[in-house]
Amino acid sequence: xxxxxxxxxxxxxxxxxxxxxxxxxxxxxxxxxxxxxxxxxxxxxxxxxxxxxxxxxxxxxxxxxxxxxxxxxxxxxxxxxxxxxxxxxxxxxxxxxxxxxxxxxxxxxxxxxxxxxxxxxxxxxxxxxxxxxxxxxxxxxxxxxxxxxxxxxxxxxxxxxxxxxxxxxxxxxxxxxxxxxxxxxxxxxxxxxxxxxxxxxxxxxxxxxxxxxxxxxxxxxxxxxxxxxxxxxxxxxxxxxxxxxxxxxxxxxxxxxxxxxxxxxxxxxxxxxxxxxxxxxxxxxxxxxxxxxxxxxxxxxxxxxxxxxxxxxxxxxxxxxxxxxxxxxxxxxxxxxxxxxxxxxxxxxxxxxxxxxxxxxxxxxxxxxxxxxxxxxxxxxxxxxxxxxxxxxxxxxxxxxxxxxxxxxxxxxxxxxxxxxxxxxxxxxxxxxxxxxxxxxxxx
Length: 444
Ligand SMILES: NC(=O)c1ccc[n+]([C@@H]2O[C@H](COP(=O)([O-])OP(=O)(O)OC[C@H]3O[C@@H](n4cnc5c(N)ncnc54)[C@H](O)[C@@H]3O)[C@@H](O)[C@H]2O)c1
Known about the structure:
It is a single chain. By secondary structure, the protein is of the alpha/beta class. It folds into 2 domains: 3-217, Rossmann fold, CATH 3.40.50.720; 223-431, N-(1-d-carboxylethyl)-l-norvaline Dehydrogenase, domain 2, CATH 1.10.1040.10. The chain is 49% helix and 12% strand. It has helices at residues 3-6, 18-35, 54-74, 76-82, 92-104, 130-143, 159-166, 197-209, 223-242, 249-263, 270-277, 279-289, 301-308, 351-358, 367-371, 376-388, 393-414, 421-431, and strands spanning 9-13, 46-50, 107-110, 121-124, 149-152, 172-177, 186-191, 213-217, 326-329, 332-338, 343-346. The chain has an 8-stranded mixed sheet with strand order 3-2-1-4-5-6-7-8, sandwiched between helices. Helix 9 (223-242) crosses helix 10, helix 9 packs antiparallel against helix 17 (393-414) and helix 10 (249-263) packs across helix 14 (351-358). It is globular. Nicotinamide-adenine-dinucleotide binds at residues 13-14, 16-20, 50-52, 56, 125-128, 136, 153-155, 176-179, 277.
């Protein structure tokens, strides 16, 4: 079966979720573009959007229409060529409406898993639960006569466990989109022990067509992205504990968040990133990864304590940030949750005291100014040279943080998760929008 034939009947599981809706959009557009080629006209293309709630699926269709409209406006020149044979389509608006119609009419929303029994390809983005994923894969595999291929978006479960658990005999691969899939350029591709070579070839082709940056990761729990992120969280949490003589909890959280954002020149502080992903999601990912790791305990008391008090973070359906470890106003952190008093404490109440204790620091370049700069390397080297020569608590915390981030990157290579430094750095640069890779010589 060719690439194009395989994409004639596809199902997305968890299509109404954060990741599933983006995967649905990308796949619908790729399938529509194939269906509009002259040689494919008249062939049937079916994309099942499968989830558990009809309401949620209705919402996804609205999202899909809005996104396809934006996309159509961007690729008008190409669409004019695609519809050149259609004398009835003259104005841009008519072409856009037709394209939206052509994309949307491929998609069939359903809550029935049985719809996937006819598909050649299954993209899966349901909850991060190994038993649930294995149960659903087995069911589809047993009932689908086409021996479908499974592309799982799991962020932490080894693909080989899913393959063996569901008896797929290598018809599975990890195709790990970043959030949101339609915007984020990075995809980690993770082969299971027995992934078929044709499944991998398809994954590479699909990623290329979607214009994604591909990084291969070995099949070790958490892969590269979460392998770094989860350990980064644990480092920050351990530093918060260590500072308990010096600072209250909220002060220490503020300090580490500031160090990891401003002094490491990252787009977000570590605790803001945890809120963005979700305190519950991060804690859960650690618990999924943990059984697969040797000599390491990926377990964060700080997150667990907050979760026990209902602090979750995450996002509203419009993409805005919910309060979590930090409280937000217009997307900016304004307060930090204190588990002792169970209230948010305004950052203004302690900011100058903590900044004073962190001591004088070289002025860091802002992430925004550095990330797209042609002189990025030079600016960063000058800044880190200054940091090397600065004494005081803040500079010490920043150096320790940067060195730990580098060590985590190296650990990912030595433990066989990442193939090389470049892959680790690409994941952090592309998937996490860091201005520089964690494995670097700036502090040497
Ligand atoms: N959110 C992220 O930043 C992110 C990034 C990369 C990978 N992932 C991975 O992607 C997957 C999905 O994560 P998410 O954040 O989109 O979760 P989500 O909770 O937003 O979406 C999951 C969706 O699956 C649906 N679902 C649950 N059980 C189902 C079933 N039996 N059949 C069909 N649909 C079902 C839910 O209703 C929901 O719409 C997870 O494996 C996660 O680890 C998440």
